[in-house]
Specification:
Blueprint lengths: L2 E2 L2 H21 L5 E7 L3 H17 L2 E7 L5 H13 L5 E4 L9 H7 L11 H8 L8 H12 L8 E5 L6 H10 L3 E5 L6 H6 L3 E4 L17 E4 L3 E2 L5 E2 L4 H4 L5 E2 L7 H16 L2
Parallel strand pairs: 1-11, 2-3, 2-4, 5-6, 5-7, 7-8, 8-11
Antiparallel strand pairs: 9-10
Helix pairs in contact: 1-10, 2-10, 6-7, 6-10
This protein binds nicotinamide-adenine-dinucleotide.
């Protein structure tokens, strides 16, 4: 039977460590505040924003909430970001994505000061990661590195295959695994022989966005499987990009959905917020 990589437990552990660190910084007179901007009232975004604010409260930093109407113009949003960039009390700025269609996501991401870019989406943050320099790292892939390390999965020298090349998961994941000295293969929708490539993986990271796409035929026996996908069915039941019941008996360790990668994203966002306090 595979070892279950427990994201719920590991994320709780990280948040406890951060709470302690924030208390120590407070004792030195250093405080933290995350500005969270939401444009429109998309229900899924509202849940994410609420959870981020709760996590701030838990670790002991302020969250400043900006709930803007769907009709907010790009100029108005840019003005607010610039105001927050200049505000010394604010050390992290997050714009909940997606933004309404009349606002250009890339323009918004670029407007956030790289020193406050706690989502790690700014081109400067991505560039720093690419050339191995210090900077904020996208939260989901950073969380996966923590899951592997804290579950004693060896990364160095292993062959890691990533399915998916998105800017928020697949690409930064590949760069982080490279930083950890893995040999990395990125696959995507145009990859030929996907199964054969996956079968060569010691660590298989799946971020496709297709429910239960990966079955046992993609796996080498003893591989470690990380399932990034999140799918909710009509009964509110969650599942991932991996057919868990079929894959689990074959691998040495696996993340469940829910309770695997999901809880790590907010924990790593909090980690970036604490890092921002000492910049
Ligand atoms: P995306 O849609 O931006 O990217 C999907 C990637 O999968 C693309 O690069 C595409 O080339 C690749 N792909 C699609 N079909 C394929 C196929 N048949 N074969 C091989 N590759 C294929 O998605 P994303 O934002 O990277 O998210 C992926 C999944 O992870 C989604 O289910 C999303 O909900 C989930 N997600 C979870 C978290 C979390 O916190 N756990 C965070 C981000 C995303």
């Amino acid at each position: 039977m595979a070892k279950l990589i427990d994201g719920k437990h590991i994320s709780a552990e990280i948040k406890e460590e951060l709470k302690q660190k924030v208390a120590e910084l407070k004792a030195e007179g250093i405080t933290g505040a995350l500005a969270v901007i939401q444009v429109g009232d998309d229900p899924a975004s509202s849940v994410y924003v609420r959870n981020k604010k709760k996590a701030c409260e838990f670790i002991g930093i302020d969250s400043l909430s900006y709930e803007l109407s769907e009709e907010t113009t790009q100029e108005e949003l840019l003005e607010l970001i610039e105001k927050l960039n200049q505000d010394e009390k604010v050390n992290g700025i997050l714009v909940q994505l997606p933004v309404p269609k009349h606002i250009d996501e890339n323009t918004i991401i670029k407007a956030i000061s790289p020193s406050k870019d706690v989502d790690g989406f700014h081109p400067q943050s991505v560039g720093a990661l690419t050339i191995g320099q210090k900077g904020f790292v996208s939260c989901t892939p950073a969380g996966i590195i923590q899951l592997l390390k804290r579950s004693d999965v060896e990364i160095e020298g292993k062959h890691c295959v990533i399915i998916g090349r998105s800017n928020i998961v697949g690409k930064p994941m590949a760069l982080l695994m490279l930083r950890e000295n893995a040999t990395v293969t990125i696959t995507h929708s145009r990859t030929k022989n996907l199964k054969e490539i996956c079968k060569a993986a010691d660590i298989l990271i799946v971020a496709i966005g297709k429910k239960e796409f990966v079955d046992a035929s993609y796996l080498k026996e003893g591989a470690v499987v990380i399932d990034v996908g999140i799918h909710r069915d009509e009964n509110n039941k969650l599942s991932g990009d991996v057919k868990f019941d079929e894959v689990e008996p074959l691998c040495s360790a696996i993340t469940p959905v829910p309770g695997g990668v999901g809880p790590m994203t907010i924990a790593m966002l909090m980690n970036n917020c604490v890092e921002a306090m000492t910049k």
